[in-house]
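Record SulP family sulfate permease, 560 aa.
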Amino acid sequence: MNSAFDIKRFFPFLRWPRPTLASLKSDAWAGLSVGMVLIPQAVAYATLAGMPAATGLYAALIPSLIGVLWGSSALLAVGPAALSSLLVFGSLSSLAAPASEQWVALAIWLSIYSGAIQFLLGAFRLGRLSNLVSQPVIVGFINAAAIIIMMSQLPTLFGVVDIFSVHPVNMFERVVADPSHMLMTSAFGLGTLALLALSKRFFPSFPSLLFITIFATALSWALGYSAAGGEVVGEIARGLPPLVLPSAISFENHRELWSAGLVLALISFTEAMSSCRVLARKRRERWDENQELIGQGLAKVASGFSGAFPVSGSFSRSALNLYAGATSAWATVFTLICVLICLLFFTDLLYYVPRSVLAALIIMPVFSLFDFGAFKRLFTISRHDGVIAIVTFVVTIAAMPRLHWGVMAGIVLTMVSYLYRHMQPRIIEVSEHADGTLRDRQRFDLPRLANDLLVVRIDAALNFLTGGALDHFVVEQCSRDPHIKRLLLCVGSVNDIDATGVDTLESLQITLKSMGIDLYVSAIKKQVWDVLEDAAWIEGLKQDHVFMTDREAIAALRSA
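=>
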């Protein structure tokens, strides 16, 4: 029995339920629907990542299979994704020329590094480290990334390569002198955008992306778009992905890729994690973030050895999987059959796809990433979180193309904000409320339990961040009122204590004793009690100075 458990632990796909004819029919329809969307998307995201078009299909094949076999979410669609592709482009822009051999080699190494990081995080059960990328950082980065993605595709969409690098007057004069190229390219790009928007509005369940791409490709071929100077995808090698070993790169390049790989691993997993949560909520099933990290990591490594770029979980294709009626991971197998058939027999049909159409395929899903209202919500909830989101947004835009600096800035600011907030714990004087509980004395205008008794509560962990604040508050209150002879410290809200916290209590006890004040403690939680007992601090107090509950302390000290 243990052996079987071990096998399923290392090969989670053995837990897949046995398919039935009905479930296979549902999975086949869903898988084919996703596959028809994935093929043009894969080519489009390859161009977004600065990679050859064929690598998008390579990234959609073996990595997708590995991701679903070793992942924990049955319907998560693993493959090329917009954010990951953008991060690839941003990470490599200063190191090589897009689509060059050096660029491809760097992308392969980046895929392996980011995958290895995710795999190790999952293997050592450190999936919660992905929470370092907080919601404000995600909001700031995704909105900035959406703008960057759209701006990066405008030159291709309109057929003006240097749209952002020349003076607008010069560009306008050149376009006016020969408007045919821009008009022809824009017609395909803007026409595709319009058709995608209309189909999403009126035919949301129809795989319009594929049919619009086919229509644009046929029109491109019929009109001689390529012969007239229009940019098309061009030749895509037919056949299976060439399993390759990564080419040698310099140590400086490796060092540049380490930080980029870490950020890509965190961001792409955060993207995949949001999809997993939605799918789990919709299907009322559990998922394992550590197992998903392992699956995502292995998928990235497999993508690297397939000669492709880092993959991730796609929210849009995962949602389509669910919408189309997929019941299990077998849907992904049918999706991969679509990609495989395309690679083996139909890559020639992609030759005439206009690049402006691919730009439209990239831009259209990006509209769903915009959520500027999230900034307002964050400011309403927490000013600190709102500032973190804005800083992440600004730094991401300013650091372009090195986008990972925006995420790093957001993470650092999140940590600083966390430490700052926890260095100012809520420490208040409390007294008995009419309902018998201890409440804020100042807020509810309560009298003291006794004239010589000060009751203090700390609503935070007692550690190196909060110890000094507690000591300062107590000493200041006792010094201000010479009538105080007894102090009750309510620690029921203290869930954790470290060596500095113990030292704070020892120092406070000595200080109060020198002031002629007795120290009492109430409602010590077990985990705190164990630390204080090991430190022999409990023994230093008299037995009648420690109370199990606040109510017991109130009764004893009021009567005294």
